[in-house]
Amino acid sequence: MGTWKLEVGKMALYMMFPVATFYLFNQPQYFEEYVTSMKRDFFPPENPEHRKMLEETIANINKREELAMLKALEEKRKKG
Questions:
Q1: Distance (Å, rounded) from C-alpha 32 to C-alpha 24?
Q2: Are residues 52 and 41 in the same domain?
């Protein structure tokens, strides 16, 4: 068995080891590049050409739906 000094030393080691490893391995310079590359993989930069195609498609769909509604309204008006 050890003395109280040994027990205090062991307790300090048990408490300091997780804190020290957390501090050392969670420094931004260690994982900044990894986080940046993962973010670029999940959220790639927007392509203006794709954006334009998407907006044109949405406009075409809206125009088609509007024409269908107008046609249905015109048919309803003719019947009634």
A1: 14
A2: no
State the total domains in the chain. 2
**Measured distance CA(71)–CA(48) in Å, rounded:** 35
Residues 2 and 38 occupy one common structural domain? yes
Cα–Cα distance list, 74 to 26, 67, 68 (Å): 67, 10, 10
Domain extent at residue 31: 1-45
pLDDT tens digits along 16-67 = 999 999 998 888 887 888 888 899 999 988 899 999 999 999 999 999 999 9
Show the CA angle centred on residue 25, arms to residues 22 and 27, nearest 5°: 100
Cα–Cα distance between 32 and 69 in angstroms, integer? 53
Whether the full predicted model's pTM is greater than 0.85, yes or no, is no
